[in-house]
């Protein structure tokens, strides 16, 4: 009887330990990338507040991309954005990058409404650059896949403006 309960206890311990080991192994996996498909080589910040802090600290503009997973326009823009080498390179080297799937409490990030996709720039002085707009008068901060050259120009404009105004 004693032997059987010792054996049962040992088997239970072995089962628990191996489950624990598997759980620990799962934890060590690379964390889910914050890129969400917008560019895995880019360093992304997690929150708007962190983005503002990093922008101020590094003197780089913050680029905020508002999008939703189930939005076909967002998906199309994401693909064009991720495939554009110049955008990827500028985003990685010259910007603090944030992509959000929810609205922030900062009303300055939705000057003409809360729609997706929407890309806005924030200066290192923490000023939202509402003057850097896309091509569409009905949704000033939206971009379509064919607008990547326009987005590149706006990224360059965001970089130029900090050098001249600060």
UniProtKB/TrEMBL annotation:
<dbReference type="GO" id="GO:0002162">
    <property type="term" value="F:dystroglycan binding"/>
</dbReference>
<dbReference type="Pfam" id="PF13899">
    <property type="entry name" value="Thioredoxin_7"/>
</dbReference>
<protein>
    <submittedName>
        <fullName>AGR3 protein</fullName>
    </submittedName>
</protein>
<keyword id="KW-0732">Signal</keyword>
<dbReference type="GO" id="GO:0005783">
    <property type="term" value="C:endoplasmic reticulum"/>
</dbReference>
<dbReference type="InterPro" id="IPR036249">
    <property type="entry name" value="Thioredoxin-like_sf"/>
</dbReference>
<feature type="signal peptide">
    <location>
        <begin position="1"/>
        <end position="23"/>
    </location>
</feature>
<dbReference type="InterPro" id="IPR051099">
    <property type="entry name" value="AGR/TXD"/>
</dbReference>
<comment type="similarity">
    <text>Belongs to the AGR family.</text>
</comment>
